[in-house]
Amino acid sequence: MYKRILKRCREKVCNQQYVMTYHARKEMNEDVLLIYDVEQCILTGKILERQKDRITAEWKYRIRGNTPDGDEIEVIVKLSPTDTLVIITVYKLKGGNSDGV
Fold this sequence. Notes:
Elements: H1 3-14, E1 18-20, H2 22-30, H3 35-44, E2 46-52, E3 59-66, E4 72-79, E5 85-92
Parallel strand pairs: 1-5
Antiparallel strand pairs: 2-3, 3-4, 4-5
C-alpha cells in the first residue's frame, strides 16, 4: 500500500540520508539495538500504518521488520520537508502481537 514511501525510506538509508532523534537513540540503547538493526528493519520490513502527527500534521510511518539476529522491531519514521528520513523512535517487540488485535 505504501510501496513508494517505503522505497524512498530505503533509498535514504542506503544513501545515509537519515537522522535519528535523541528519543530514538535513547530507546535504541534501552533495547540494546544497533544502528544496523534499525537499518535492517527499514531495508527489509514493511509499513504497517501511516499516522498523522498531532503537532506538526506531518505523516509518519510505522515499519516492522527484523534485526540481523532475528529480533522483531518497529521503527517510526517520517520524511522531513528537506527530504531527509527522520527516525523518530525504535523499539523491540516483546513477543506476541503488538497490534493490540
